[in-house]
Specification:
The protein has 101 residues and is mainly α. The chain has one domain. The protein has 4 helices and no strands.
C-alpha cells in the first residue's frame, strides 16, 4: 500500500509539472490559464466557499471545487499543447535519470 501511495504522489507531482508547462505555453487559452490559477489559489488561500470547521462539507468543497476547475481547464487546452508538455516532461525526466556521459 505504501508503494501505491508513493506512485500516486509521484504521478501527482508530474501532473502539477505538466500544468506548469501548460501555463507557460503561449498556445494555452487564457480561460484555461485562469481556471488552473484559480484551482491553485483555492488550495492555497485561507478562505473557502464552505468553512472547514463545518464537518464533512468543509473538506468536501476542496475535493470538489479544485478537481472541477482543473477538469474545466483541461477541456479548454488544445491536445497538442498537453502533448508537448507531457513529452517535454518525459524528456527532462529521462535526462535526469540518465545523465550524459
Amino acid at each position: 500500500m505504501l508503494d501505491r501511495l508513493r506512485a500516486l504522489a509521484t504521478q501527482a507531482r508530474r501532473e502539477l509539472e505538466v500544468y506548469r508547462l501548460v501555463l507557460a505555453d503561449p498556445a494555452t487559452p487564457r480561460s484555461a490559464r485562469w481556471l488552473l490559477r484559480a484551482a491553485v489559489a483555492y488550495l492555497l488561500l485561507p478562505f473557502d466557499l464552505i468553512p472547514d470547521w463545518i464537518p464533512v462539507l468543509g473538506q468536501l468543497d476542496d475535493l470538489l471545487v479544485v478537481p472541477a476547475l482543473v477538469w474545466l481547464a483541461l477541456r479548454r487546452i488544445p491536445p497538442p499543447v498537453l502533448q508537448r508538455a507531457r513529452q517535454r516532461l518525459a524528456a527532462d525526466y529521462n535526462l535526469r535519470r540518465d545523465p550524459p556521459e
